[in-house]
């Protein structure tokens, strides 16, 4: 679940670990973006989106949204667990900082400098030099597949990123859909002789944790017969057109749809 198409990266990560998994993608196109909303409003909308997904009786629920993980995770777990394991999304600060050096965290303006992100930095930065980089407009541009908007927002954030940065944490699930463009923009400002910058998203770790919570094991060689159900505002639909602008969306759309129960 997510407000929009930021869930695509986590969904593809699950698909690669379990090609036989049936995926339910639940989002809130009428209420997004969630970032500017109050914590109470985010929690209410997240509970509605989660309830739509839970009606399909999944084995685990991935909250593929940093904003919802900050503001709604306790409410979601109180409402759904222990019957439905709920897995939140946390920026990959710990693995990014493990190698030391300079690390940048790209995040929405609301998250940048927030007590939540500062707590994660204090707990997991492990002595690395961390620069917080706000990315105004990037999540929205990704959501609407606005190529020019993505280019402007990525260039602006790259200009705020130290040129000798060793790793970049993608602190919003939408950013993982344009990881290649982020890597290229940061590389253009990088001094010669430095190794390539490493990007750290959350999708792979979240997918692995969801399988563990569901009591399942990775089986990447399983039959690729997993289905797909898409819920937009609780209504069954196809993937939104914007999702098809990304490789992740096209990969998921290739899956056979799940036939609704009679």
Automatic annotation (TrEMBL):
GO BP terms, alphabetized: peptidoglycan biosynthetic process
Presence of the UniProt keyword Phosphoprotein in the record: no
Keyword set includes Isomerase: yes
GO molecular function, one term: glutamate racemase activity
Entry keywords, A to Z: Isomerase
PANTHER family linked to this entry: GLUTAMATE RACEMASE
Protein name as annotated: Glutamate racemase
